[in-house]
Amino acid sequence: MxxxxxxxxxxxxxxxxxxxxxxxxxxxxxTFTTDVVLALVAVLFAAFALVNAVVMTADVTARFVAAGE
Length: 69
Hints:
This protein is mainly alpha-helical.
C-alpha cells in the first residue's frame, strides 16, 4: 500500500507550511510591487528554499532509506 500525498505532507507540516509560505510571499511581492522586485530578491527565495529542502531531505532519508545504505 502506497501512502497518499496528503499523508506524506502531513508528516512534516512545517516543511509543507514553508513551501506554501514561499508561494504566498511571492504572490504578495508581485501584487504589491512589481515582478522586477521578485527577481531582485530571488536569491533570498533560493536560500530559504534550500534551508527548507535540507529539513525535508533529512526527514525523507530518515523515514524511507534503509539504515545500511
